[in-house]
Each structure stands twice: as C-alpha cells, then as structure tokens.
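In full, the data:

***
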Amino acid sequence: MNIIGSVTAAAAGLAAVLAGVNLYLSGRREVDKWIRETLMEIFVLFLDASFKHASLCRTVLVDVTPSQPELNRLRSDILEAHDVATRGLTHLRLLAPPAVVEAATELLNAEYLLAKPCFSEPSSREEALELIRTVRKRRAQMLESTRSALGLRETKGTGDFELNLSWRDLRKRLNDATTEE
C-alpha cells in the first residue's frame, strides 16, 4: 500500500471539497450583497414615494385651497406616488422578509386613508393632521423593520419623522413672497 499516494489523494480530495465550499460561500455572499443593495434601493424609492404622497395630501387637505386645475394636478401626482410605492411593494414581496412587507402594506393602507379625502369631501384640518401622524407612525415602523432586515443595529428610534422644525413654513413663505412679486 502506498501511504504517500493515499495521503496525497486524501489531501487533494479535501482541498477540492474546501475549494467547492469556498466557491459556494463566495457565491452566497455575492447574492446576499446583491439582495441587500437592491432592497436598500427599493426601500429608498418606496420611502421617497411615501414622503411625496403625504406632502401632496397635506397640501390638498391642510396647507392651501387649490384651484380646480391645481387640485387635479395634485390628485394625479398623489396617484403617481402611489403607483411608485406599489411597484416598490411588488419588489419588496420578492426580496424582503415578511415583517418588511407587512410594514409596507400597513403604510400603504394608512396612505390610502390619507388620500381618500383628497378625492372626496375633505376632512377637517385636525382629522387630516391625525391621518398624517398615522402615516408617519407606519413609515417609522417600516423603517425600523427594514433596518432590522438589513441587519443594522439599534433599529428603535430611527424612524421618528415628527420634526419640531417646520421647513414647510419656510417653503410657504418663499412661495408667498414669490407670488407677490
């Protein structure tokens, strides 16, 4: 029996097995990296659409009383933001964990309740602001579940969208000053 030949063959076999495991794990890491990057892109698009949707609804329900042509444009933009979000939800359903999909669905449901009075009899200012707070809460829950799915630490408290400063007031002042000129 050739011991050196047997040891060499065993070492070569072990090397082949380890090389195969390494290739498998490397490929797995690349797939995981792609999923993570893609999920991040989808989430950012979804979040941008959510902010746009809420801002448009706030304009219709709280900030101004738009003319009919402006109201029609705002309504069209609300539907467009919703379309972007639903396309994002489709992608999330394919790539994201169930907790993220559930949070995204809850956010879309809250956004629907906010948009509904934009297309019918407007709600009171207080009711509209409460609907906006609900959207912000759902958005925060989605952000936290997405951060958790991405393996980011300290997910709690990262989704607070209740700002003490109102940039909206500054924008309104600029728009008012511009229209007066």
